[in-house]
């Protein structure tokens, strides 16, 4: 391939990011139960890249080679492909369990949720002087919130006191420079779990000693109002955040958490109505089909009242938290 033509291609990292954004948009549009259920013809993906970036990818195999190289360098599977009589279909790898893999999923939904959390923090219904103290829990969605906070610090009051065992949050808010003058970052003792990207230890005891204004966390699964995560180490921490930690509790959802059956061996760490606020994305495309999450969350809405309805996100307040 001529050198001039090579410069008119996205870098591997940017190509991967663009494809996951496209899959996130398709998830909103199709109303499927999981983003993993989506398969998109590579010829459609090439048309999308041409429309979005003005880059004409004439070869399916070239895209596949670039994705394969990125996966090889990162050491994690991200995509799957299937050959049909009309060409190849591209999907997301079926076993997306590690933090590195999960941070690629539901990208646009996580951005919407992060903006919703910022809105909640900016319009804090309980005014206070002094630093803002916030607990940021596990997961890639919470890391997106940390990134949004970092980008918005100049426009938001401060300083900030942040406690977290999430390495993604630590990497985002622990950088030297302007951030270090605005953010005081506290982390617990423990060992690093590379799969979940967390510091694993007696985090519930650490968090119990700190006074928080806010505590923000996500969940992996939602079933009949009960909340679950895959990591047994996280169950105790998440339960303690709800029941023992100070501050208003915020649960962030990306709209994929609804499940038909709880995976074997999992126990709930809490219930959705135990949180003071719920922040979740809204589908921006008209005519979007109801997903499994929409159907499972619908009967739970009576537990909440709308606080903010934005084009991109919803902020709900539990009815018991109305006076908070």
Give an overview in words.
The protein is an alpha/beta fold and about 325 residues long. About 35% of the residues lie in helices and about 20% in strands. It has helices spanning about 5, 10-30, 40-55, 60-75, 100, 105-120, 140-150, 165-175, 180, 205-210, 230-245, 290-295; strands spanning about 40, 80-85, 85-90, 130-135, 160-165, 185, 190-195, 200, 215-220, 220-225, 225-230, 250, 270, 275-280, 305-310, 315-320. It has an eight-stranded mixed β-sheet with strand order 6-5-4-9-12-14-16-15. Strands 1-3-2 form a three-stranded antiparallel β-sheet. Strands 10-11-13 form a three-stranded antiparallel β-sheet. Helix 2 packs across helix 4 and helix 7 (about 140-150) packs parallel to helix 8 (about 165-175). The radius of gyration is 21 Å and the shape is globular. The termini are far apart.
Keyphrases for this structure?
12 helices; 16 strands; eight-stranded mixed beta sheet; alpha/beta; 324 residues; disordered N terminus
Topology:
Elements (H helix, E strand, L loop, with lengths): L2 H4 L5 H19 L8 E3 H12 L6 H15 L4 E6 L2 E6 L6 H4 L4 H16 L9 E5 L3 H13 L7 E5 L2 H7 L4 H5 E4 L4 E3 L4 E3 L2 H6 L5 E5 L2 E3 L2 E3 L3 H12 L4 E5 L17 E2 L5 E5 L10 H6 L6 E6 L3 E6 L6
Parallel strand pairs: 4-5, 4-9, 5-6, 9-12, 12-14
Antiparallel strand pairs: 1-3, 2-3, 7-8, 10-11, 11-13, 14-16, 15-16
Helix pairs in contact: 2-4, 6-7, 7-8
